[in-house]
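User: Hey, quick favor. My workstation is busy. Could you predict this chain's structure for me?
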Amino acid sequence: MKRYILSTMLAAAAIALAPAPSVAAAQDPSFTATLSGGAFAVAKDGKYYVYDLAGRGTKLGTCTGVFENHYSNGSNTLVGFATITAATGDSLDVEYTQTWNGTQWVGQYNIVGGIGRFADATGSGAMGAAFNAAHTVVTVTFEGTISF
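Assistant: No problem, here it is.
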């Protein structure tokens, strides 16, 4: 019995003195998101359009996004800014530039911060926006990286 108690005490001491596993595991930097909704601007003035979309993203889960697009006169190029908000209230701020290729908008995005756990977020990658055949639904996709 003494041997059992001693071995149990030694095992407990070894566990207590063992180094803790590292909790600073490397974060997966990949980022993807797909948001879609009505292709009708909730605000516009001819050069400036705002779209309100919903979807899902890695690091975000279920999310909504407000996209502000600024179009250049006589150009197939737009610059924009989006705020993508997770169900938790944390949000990403994204700047982007896109060009119309005849079938969809394609371009690049840069993550420039946010709110909550994304306050210091950075990242970049490819972004696209495509319309359904009737031009009533737009789907926006992101594929790249994120660090926060």
